[in-house]
Predict the structure.
Amino acid sequence: MRIASADMADIHQVLDDHHRYWGERDLRSLHLRALVQEFGSTCLVARTEDGIHGYVLGFVTPAGTGYVHLIATRDDARGTGLGRRLYAAFAEAALRHGARQLKAITSPGNTGSIAFHRRLGFDAETVEDYDGPGRTMVVFHRPLPFGTAQP
């Protein structure tokens, strides 16, 4: 498996196979093509001969935060450590662009994402109205370098 920068063909492939990454949840509107166009070096795909097994869409803010907008693994790649490898690759790319910390968000009901981020050493804080009135989100932070993850 090779992790490399994403291009527009990759984002189209991910959208074509959306159900393989997200199941019944329709998150296609969150796959902002502008992220790949403008932040291609921090938008990554994990690829083998049979396609894209996982991806991360992220960027580095001017304040030095590596923000992960989306991360997903294909249904047949879950439980293999690929999500952790994608985060590590993103962290390396973010460091090269001056990031000092990582950040991500999820909804309070996304218990899988919360557990995953905590295993990777992120602190989690529930923030009311984070995404507008009545839109509570769980906000994750962790310092860089990424180093070893929590057991």
In short: The mean pLDDT is 94. The first strand starts at residue 2 and ends at 5.
